[in-house]
Design goal:
The chain is mainly α. The chain has four helices and no strands.
Amino acid sequence: MTSLLPEIGEWLWGGHWRGALAVELDVNPRRVRAWAAGEEPVPEGVWRELYEMLRQQAVENARLSGAVMAMIYPREEGR
């Protein structure tokens, strides 16, 4: 499961995800590196926090996608 952590980290923060995740979780960056390397298991609470971050991003993505779709297919006035 350790390969999932780098994938999520890069999705949320890009190439410097380890430092950003450490700041977000208020943990030592060495801890994040150990999780990413599979040297220590990722705590369940961290998975829960990552899930919530991904869920919030999905909500925002849906909102922005809808706004872009409205720009592509504007509603006619009076409808």
